[in-house]
Design goal:
Largest sheet of chain A: 5 strands, mixed
Distance between the termini of chain A: 77 Å
Mean pLDDT of chain B: 84
Helix content of chain B: over 70%
Distance between the termini of chain B: 39 Å
Mean pLDDT of chain A: 68
Number of helices of chain A: 14
Structural class of chain B: mainly alpha
Radius of gyration of chain B: 18 Å
Shape of chain A: elongated
Strand content of chain A: 15-25%
Order of helices and strands of chain B: HHHHHHHH
Oligomer: heterodimer
Number of strands of chain A: 22
Number of helices of chain B: 8
Largest sheet of chain B: none
Shape of chain B: globular
Structural class of chain A: alpha+beta
Helix content of chain A: 25-40%
Number of strands of chain B: 0
Low-confidence stretches of chain B: 171-175
Largest interface: A-B, 78 and 74 residues
Radius of gyration of chain A: 27 Å
Low-confidence stretches of chain A: 66-125, 134-161, 410-442, 450-467, 480-488
Strand content of chain B: under 5%
């Protein structure tokens, strides 16, 4: 007999299924009805959809402080653990498939296993283990699609102390950039982990040990955060802070906990330049007196939605201040990276392969000798700037994990000069990436074919033009000195 | 062929519905999240095969159905009558419900409705859906039998759904 989807019996059947109180017979009866009766299927769909809506809305309201009843998060923390999310205790094993970027680029899937039974839970409410979900569409130049080896080591893992902590390494292991717009915290952390997996595609880091826990009560808080290259852990700290949370690091686990204050957080008046107090710039001078660093600080503050007043004061929340601190520390870190200069020569393409490629140190030596013998004058010498959301230059340094790559953006269009719009077209990927081993006498260079640029010249916005048909040799010209000591 | 850059907007738009769809068949919340994560990964991997002329949500539910059946039928977690045809019917039901009113509209309406709940009812909803308190302990605290509390929760859900329907100007008869 066809069931009546509007009958009290059928509605009760759905409720019992959703409440997990249905008997085996009742469950069979429900699904039989769903298979045979479109209205019954629609009724279950509507009920399930509403249940899910109710759960997410209630959690979001609680996390935003819109409490429907006199409840406070601290009281939740005082509850014995068994009172919280009991179903989780029944789950012996949680499996997390990961590595979204690997899925994009190399089709790899990382599988994480987590045995919850032995896991010591943090005191704050309930946490969810977040696995990498997906790679966001970055606005920055993408990481090299075909990375070339022997890149510059920012922090050579092999040369580190053997017992270096993974989480310490992650505090200077660079993601290429972060672009999160109104994304729930849980998903945002998953995205960051996806990016981390992409950068770590050569598996230099043992990421299978890494655990990132996000409190359920804050996982739906939406955050917006944009930055250029930034170390993974600093990005996590910034994102967590913007969601009104704190980060506790206990190797190999990163636990995000809810900050015990009103959320959204209240703002208070501060002096923006206080952020630079005690810090040194790349030249070893106090950052607080460096106009460039002050301008960068303002730019970072504005990226967080904080508008500095004329007197240098800002109305800023604790989370924004913490996120700004992460951006500032990142700038300090970037400022300490050695930046070599390069000379660009145009040479006839005779007998040269028409492909972009990295020149080995030996080839660089040979080419240098040729240039000297021919008394060739470089088209220009330059020091590439670091990649950032605002850097539109055709050649940039791109921090990437433990390395810095010299990256050429293929879609650079000389016509853009006329339109005062240099740089890559949206979505363009670099065709060539190479790097300079800073601590060696002879670094690598790049050979760029005009054919592969789609144009016969590579303009740097000023004057460098190569004759049609030539190729460009980009050769390192300096060996940078040791970076200044850390500011802190 | 679709660029993976396009995946995120598609996925974000349907993720709540997708989680609800999986939840209709997989009732254990932790398992539901596991399945959701796995389905998200499969969608990502297979995104190139997605035909943009068709609704992304339906495509995602189709993949989720296969995942649910593969994983859970074999483990005896689903009734025998939960067949591919039943999940296909359920997917169609989701599409109809989604067409009636999108998730965001319902969320806004539900927020208004939650504001109108009496304190005791609001506490039940909070304890169940935010804290995740077991019904048994909720019943003890409230001085009710477990059955009575289930009925109370059921009544509250229906009350809230009716409120949302009214706010959205939808006919209650349409359910």
């Amino acid at each position: 007999m066809k069931p009546d989807p509007r009958s009290a019996e059928f509605i009760t059947l759905i409720d019992r299924w959703l409440d997990q109180t249905a008997t085996v017979e009742e469950a069979a009866c429900l699904w039989q009805a769903v298979a045979e009766c479109p209205q019954c299927a629609a009724a279950l769909a509507a009920a399930s959809r509403f249940e899910s809506l109710l759960e997410s809305t209630v959690q979001e309201r609680a996390s935003e402080g819109k409490l429907m009843a006199p409840v406070a998060l601290p009281s939740l923390q005082e509850k014995p653990r068994q009172d919280l999310r009991p179903w989780r205790q029944g789950s012996q094993t949680r499996r997390w498939l990961a590595s979204a970027a690997a899925l994009i680029l190399v089709g790899l899937v990382s599988v994480y296993f987590w045995n919850e039974a032995g896991m010591e839970r943090p005191a704050v409410a309930v946490h969810e283990l977040v696995g990498p979900i997906q790679q966001p569409p970055l606005r920055l130049p993408q990481a090299p699609s075909n990375p070339i080896k022997d890149e510059v080591k920012i922090a050579d893992a092999k040369s580190q102390e053997p017992k270096e902590l993974l989480t310490d390494h992650l505090d200077r292991f660079f993601l290429t950039g972060v672009s999160l717009d109104h994304i729930p915290l849980g998903l945002a952390i998953g995205i960051l982990q996806g990016q981390l997996n992409e950068v770590n595609r050569d598996a230099a880091l043992a990421l299978d040990q890494l655990r990132v826990l996000v409190p359920t009560g804050a996982s739906q808080r939406r955050i917006t955060f944009h930055s250029g290259p930034i170390p993974f852990l600093k990005a996590v700290r910034a994102v967590a802070a913007l969601a009104g949370c704190e980060v506790e690091v206990s190797e190999p686990q990163i636990t995000i906990t809810i900050q015990q204050s009103i959320y959204p957080e209240l703002v208070k008046k501060r002096v923006l330049s206080d952020m630079l107090a005690g810090r040194l710039n790349a030249r070893g001078s106090p950052s607080i007196t460096d106009p460039e660093r002050l301008a960068a600080l303002r730019e970072d503050a504005e990226s967080l939605g904080v508008k500095p007043a004329v007197d240098g004061g800002v109305a800023i929340s604790r989370g924004q201040w913490e996120a700004l601190k992460m951006l500032t520390e990142t700038r300090d870190l970037l400022g300490r990276l050695p930046m070599p200069s390069y000379a660009i020569y145009a040479v006839p393409s005779d007998n040269q392969p028409q492909t972009n490629r990295v020149l080995t140190a030996e080839e660089v030596d040979k080419e240098r000798q040729k240039m000297v013998a021919a008394r060739a004058v470089p088209l220009m010498t330059f020091t590439p700037q670091l990649a950032s959301p605002t850097n539109r230059a055709p050649i940039q340094f791109q921090p990437y994990g433990d390395t810095v790559s010299l990256t050429l953006n293929p879609a650079y269009d000389p016509e853009a000069d006329r339109r005062a719009r240099m740089g890559p077209q949206p979505g363009a990927n670099p065709v060539v990436a190479s790097a300079m081993p800073f601590n060696k006498e002879n670094g690598e260079g790049i050979l760029i074919s005009g054919r592969h640029l789609g144009v016969n010249s590579l303009s740097f916005g000023l004057s460098a033009q190569s004759p049609a048909g030539d190729i460009l040799l980009i050769l390192p010209v300096t060996t940078p000195s040791s970076p200044p000591p850390p500011a802190e | 062929m679709l660029e993976h850059d396009h995946f995120l907007p598609h996925f974000l738009a349907v993720q709540s519905d997708l989680r609800a769809f999986i939840g209709a068949a997989v009732r254990d919340p932790a398992t539901r999240e596991d399945v959701f994560q796995e389905v998200a990964m499969i969608l990502w991997k297979k995104f190139e095969r997605y035909d943009p002329a068709k609704p992304f949500g339906a495509w995602a539910r189709g993949i989720a159905s296969r995942k649910i059946l593969e994983d859970h039928r074999m483990k005896g977690r689903l009734p025998e009558s939960c067949t591919p045809e039943a999940l296909e019917m359920l997917s169609a039901g989701f599409m109809a419900d989604e067409a009636e009113s999108p998730w965001e509209a319902r969320e806004t309406a539900l927020n208004h409705c939650l504001d109108t709940l009496p304190e005791r009812s609001a506490r039940f909803i909070r304890d169940r859906y935010h804290v995740g308190q077991p019904v048994e302990s909720m019943a003890t605290e409230a001085g009710l039998s477990v059955d009575a509390l289930y009925q109370t929760l059921s009544r509250l859900r229906r009350q809230l759904r009716d409120c949302v329907q009214r706010r959205l100007g939808l006919s209650l008869e349409s359910e």
